[in-house]
Write a structure and sequence with these properties.
Ferritin, 87% helix, 0% strand, binds fe (ii) ion, 5 helices
Length: 181
């Protein structure tokens, strides 16, 4: 009787961990699509930015994002999975929102920059939440190489987010208020 119980509870754990692994791989595919999508969206955002500071922050993060695509391929390789992109509806929506903000604000204004920063920070926050979860899942699943790579990406997203906050606080928000007065 005891043997039977322990066997079924082991089976349950195996099922649970393979379901978690599946969730992990699925989320990885989602983020792989999201990062690739961003490599196309970020240059447009940089081009539309008013201040040089914002433009260069976005360009810096574009270079990081291109590298994150490669890091995600390394994560796939580390778990013997093929790198496959699966459309991420959330990132598609966030990028659409950024595009509509850019079309609704005037060229060369600080208000445009405030809008771009707001949209870019929503992207970063989505990524921070996603990579945080994925890194934890990698830890739980005993995938240290994947966890380390995901942690590196998570740090880059956090840095990009705080750089945007610095720009908003130090420069752009003040100028937008001046424009309104
Ligand atoms: Fe990213």
């Amino acid at each position: 009787m005891a043997t039977k119980t322990s066997r079924s509870s082991n089976q349950k754990m195996t099922d649970e961990s393979s379901a978690l692994k599946e969730l992990f791989v699925d989320s990885l595919k989602d983020l792989y699509w999201a990062e690739k999508h961003l490599t196309k969206a970020l240059p447009k955002m940089a081009k539309k930015a008013t201040s040089e500071e914002l433009r260069s922050a976005i360009e810096k993060h574009l270079a990081e994002t291109e590298n994150q695509v490669i890091k995600l391929e390394q994560v796939f390789a580390s778990i013997d999975e093929k790198a496959v992109a699966k459309k991420c509806e959330a990132m598609e929506g966030l990028v659409k929102e950024a595009e509509s903000i850019m079309s609704e604000t005037e060229n060369g204004t600080m208000t445009r920059d405030v809008g771009i920063i707001a949209a870019a920070q929503k992207v970063e926050h989505y990524e921070i939440a996603s990579y945080g979860t994925l890194r934890t899942l990698a830890d739980v699943l005993g995938l240290p190489e994947a966890a380390e790579l995901l942690n590196q990406i998570l740090d880059e997203e956090k840095n990009a987010d705080s750089l945007l906050t610095q720009i908003a606080e130090a420069y752009v928000n003040q100028s937008a208020m001046r424009e309104e007065n």
